[in-house]
Amino acid sequence: MKIKVFRSKENYPMELLLSADPSLKLVEEYVKRGECFIAENDNQIVGTYVLLRND
Predict the structure, then answer these.
(1) What's the domain count of the chain?
(2) The overall pTM is greater than 0.85
(3) Which of the 8 DSSP states describes residue 42?
(4) 8 or 15: which carries more pLDDT confidence?
């Protein structure tokens, strides 16, 4: 399994992100403010998270 920064600004793995927070509006805000990472296994996205700065 590899974890890497997700570079595409248009095709976020929304299904996975929405499984963590079902609010589309909030998820869209998270990906705008943070940095999205994905976990890949055999070239398939199997996980994702967004890191947000918390000052």
Answers:
(1) 1
(2) no
(3) T
(4) 15
